[in-house]
Every structure is written in structure tokens, then in C-alpha cells.
């Protein structure tokens, strides 16, 4: 039994979820359902009010006729009693009166004569058998009605249920019992009751209610069909526009909506097609402009290499003979070599960016221990850290962090992150942490320097973007390093993310899948440092930075805390 109820509950839940999904996913279903619900509620309310008004009208009209007829019959009976001779047998008079009163002006009725509940002591009672047109109807006269008739003058009436005459004895025909008093001279006062059936009125009311129900069903059905047609005419173009928009978003710029007629929907389709045509033209122009820009950057970068090579050769000659120059000429030779290095770096970055834009960048992926790549990048950043007075703290896992990567590109990412962290650390420590799980490996580079706000973190990977363009840079970067690093990470199917807070430093996290084809869902390392972050991890390798790069230890001579 428990299993049955469990399965039933599961089926009901599934059905409920399917209904909710259908309700949320279809505008047409929502409109039709809402219209039908409102229509049904409105028809039911109006039908109930109309049915009640018709029922009350029929009842009041029939009741007025019944009371008028019973009053005339009562006066007729009283006149009969008054005109009867003194020697008339009272029993026979009652019987003839009941038979005569059965047929009224509006149809058949039942008549009964009853003694009053309380007899007048001054009148000698006459014991006769009180007749009734149907003895089964005498119990319908309630004690409340008899007391009301006996205590007052005039007519009293009460609604009753008349037996249908079926074997089960069910009560279903409505009726009205009308009572009044008549006085028999020399005998006593008796109660005269008339029973009127409202069966014909009930049949009329049932017919009207069935007609109203049929009309209401027809109205709701027509309302539902009309709503379906209207919503279909409205929703179909919208669905078509959504499909075409999805195709346009997927790059199928030639997709267009079908235009039919001259109505508002046709105007919408034409306007949508004109918009799509304009977008296609603009996208093609942008693609052509982008292709021209990439070609220009690539051509200029290649063309500049030849004169740059000549200039470098001349600069190296001057730089080699700088000791023979006066101080001003010697400084000029040194500045020339520094700017030539920057120029070569800029050309290399521009060529790399052009390869990414052209989709020509490829991976030379191999199985590599990420710890080795991290230590190699840290080793290259040590001279800069020494000049800036920054300590590099590196935390490596004990187990191998094997990953399928292009070592050259990943090392370039890490080198850019380390240089960026050292530049902005303002002499504070820089922490490098490596971690791995079954799906991915991650590296975080954390500094405690100037930091950045959320807007700067959102633009830190943009090309040629700087948080403070006027700030002097020690390394004279090109503004493309982080942009290239982001493209390298994407080429591996990984993430490169940034977090920062003003005066609290920044943290960059590189997450790479262990193998090609793995879709990243999480990272082994958090991007946002915890509030109670210790200044230095508990167990890590420390690269001690000193002003003299020559005194830096080898990787095999790391200090451990």
C-alpha cells in the first residue's frame, strides 16, 4: 500500500511539473487557460444569478395565483357552510365540499379538513370523520403551520415537498400548503388546507436551467475557439520571429520571416526582416573592417621587423661602444636599447593577437606537470621581484599535477600574472598557490598591493586597458599581456579570472582542464580570498627576493617554512 501511494505521489508530482512547464513555456496556453477560467467563472456566476431570478419570479407569480385561488375557494366553502340547512349531515357536507374543491381555477389540487388544535369550550364538538382528497398528504401539514392557522386570521402558507409516488418514497416535487379556517354554524371552527403542486413550474425551471447550461457551454466553447484562433494568429509570428532570431544569433544571417498579408503581423515581419537586413549589412561591414584591421596589424608588424632588425643592429653597436661616449650619449644608447626591447615586445604581442583574431592560434599540447611550469615562470620573475623588494611565496601540492597543456602558452600566462602582481604589489608579498582535483588544475597569484575595484576587474583583460593610464610603469608593458593570457586560457578550454579590492590587493586564478574535452564546472581553488586569510600559507616554498639578482637561490635551494 505504501509503495502504491508512493508511486501515485511520484506520478502526480511529475504530472504537476509537466503542467507547470507547459504553463510557463507557452504564452498561448496561458492566454487560453486564463480566458477559459474567466469565461467559466463569469458564465457560472451570471447563470446562477439568472437562474435564481427566474426561479424566484416563477415561484412568486405562482404563489400569488395560489393565494388568490385558495382565498376564493375558502370564501366559497364558508358560503356553503352558511347556506347549508340545519338538518344537513355534516359528514356528507364535508365530503361533498372536499370533492368540489379539488378542482381549482389553475388545475388539480388536494384538499383536507382538519380539526383545530385547540377547541372552543363554549362550542359542543361534533365528532365526524374529516375527509381528505389523499390521506397520504395529511402528514405534510406541519404543526407549525397548524398553530399559525389556528392562532391567526386569514391564510397561512408553507413550502412542502410532495411525494413523487415512486416505490422509494423520495421527495422531489415542490409544493405549497395553504391553510385557513372556516366556521360551521352550530358545530365548530375547522381548518381547511389546500395542497398545490409546483411540478410544472419545476419542469419549466429545469428546462430553462438546461437551456442556460447548454448556452453557457456553447459560449465557453466559442470563447475558447476564438481565443485559440486569435492567440494562434498572434503567437505564430512571434514564434517564427524567435526561431529566426535564434538562427541569426547562430550566425545564419540570411534567415528571414515569411510575410503574409498587410496586417499588423505582416508589418512586424517586414520590420523584423528590415532589422535583420540592416544587422547583416552592419555585421558584414564590421567583419570586413575587422579583417582589414587584422591584416593591417599583421602586415605592419611583419613590415616593421625588417627596419627594426637594422635599427637593433645599429643600436647594439652603439650600446657596445657606450663606454667610449660622453655621459649624455652613453645614456641615449642605453635608452635606445630599452625602447627597442619594448618595441620588439609590442610587435610580438600584436602578431600574437592577430593570430588569435584570425583563428590561426594552435596548441602544442603535451602531458606536463603544472608544478614544473609554475616554478619555471617564478624563476623568470625573480629578477623583477628582487628589484621591487617583493617576496614570492609558492605553495605546491605534494602529488603531481599532470595536465594536458601547451607549456609555452601556460608559462606565458603565469609570467604575465606574476609580472602584473609584482608591479602592483608595492613591495608586499606575492603568493602563488597550485591545487588540483580529478577534473582540473588551478593556479592563483595573489598580491596585497594597490588592488582594484569591481569595474577595473571587469576590464582588466581588455586590450590596451590600464586602470591608471598616467601611472608610470617600471616594465613599460604593451597593455596586451593579460588579453593574450585570456586568449591562451580559452584556447586550452580553461578560465582566467580576476578579483580585487582597493588597498586589499588582487587575485588572479587560472583554471585548466586536465584533459581536452572536459567541461569545467568548478575550480580547485577559490578566487575570492577568505576574510580571515593568513598573510602567508602555513607550508610553502619561499623565493627570497634580494636587490642583487645574482644572489638569488636556485630552485633546488628553496627555503621552507
UniProtKB/TrEMBL annotation:
Alphabetical UniProt keywords: ATP-binding, Cell membrane, Kinase, Membrane, Nucleotide-binding, Phosphoprotein, Transferase, Transmembrane, Transmembrane helix, Two-component regulatory system
Alphabetized GO MF terms: ATP binding; phosphorelay sensor kinase activity
Sequence ranges assigned to domain Histidine kinase in this UniProt record: 299-516
Gene Ontology cellular-component annotations: plasma membrane
The keyword Transmembrane is annotated on this UniProt entry: yes
HAMP domain segment(s): 232-284
EC number: 2.7.13.3
Catalytic reaction list: ATP + protein L-histidine = ADP + protein N-phospho-L-histidine
Protein name: Sensor histidine kinase MtrB
Pfam families assigned to the protein according to its UniProt record, in alphabetical order: HAMP, HATPase_c, HisKA
Source organism, top-level taxon: Bacteria
Localization (cell): Cell membrane
UniProt topology in membrane: Multi-pass membrane protein
Spans traversing the lipid bilayer: 31-50
InterPro entries, per the entry: HAMP_dom, HATPase_C_sf, HATPase_dom, His_kinase_dom, HisK_dim/P_dom, HisK_dim/P_sf, MtrAB_MtrB, Sig_transdc_His_kin-like_C
Taxon lineage: Bacteria, Bacillati, Actinomycetota, Actinomycetes, Micrococcales
